[in-house]
Write a structure and sequence with these properties.
The protein has about 120 residues and is mostly helical. The protein is about 65% helix and about 0% strand. The chain is elongated, with a radius of gyration of 20 Å.
Length: about 120
């Protein structure tokens, strides 16, 4: 009887731990692999992008902000592959936005894309 009770409590603890881990992962709103990249991405963003996109805004074209709804509207394939869509925009530029593929390394662009994605998901 004691063994069955012990096993049941252990199972409950494991189940609770799993539920909490899933909840924590969903609460953060970002893939764990991108978490480290967002720290450097913020620094790179501030040094290269914030002059035009301070706080996720756009000083040149007001409606083309870095808010999730705007990105979804004007970046091709954003709803299917948001990180890739942001990467493409940063690398190649478009319209008033310059291309950064010759100014930043691919790793730096990836870090900025992860940062922009995370900030957009959290409404800046």
């Amino acid at each position: 009887m004691l063994d069955a009770c012990y096993e049941e409590n252990l199972l409950r603890i494991l189940l609770l731990t799993l539920v909490l881990a899933i909840a924590l992962f969903n609460f953060t709103g970002i893939h764990p692999a991108l978490a480290a990249e967002t720290f450097n991405g913020g620094k790179i963003f501030n040094a290269n992008c914030s002059a035009c996109h301070i706080g996720g805004a756009n000083i040149l074209i007001e409606h083309k902000t870095l808010q999730k709804a705007a990105l979804s509207k004007y970046l091709e394939n954003y709803d299917l592959e948001p990180i890739q869509a942001i990467l493409d925009q940063i690398q190649n530029g478009k319209g008033a936005m310059p291309a950064f593929k010759n100014k930043l390394s691919y790793q730096e662009i990836l870090e900025v894309a992860a940062y922009v994605f995370q900030k957009a998901e959290r409404s800046w």
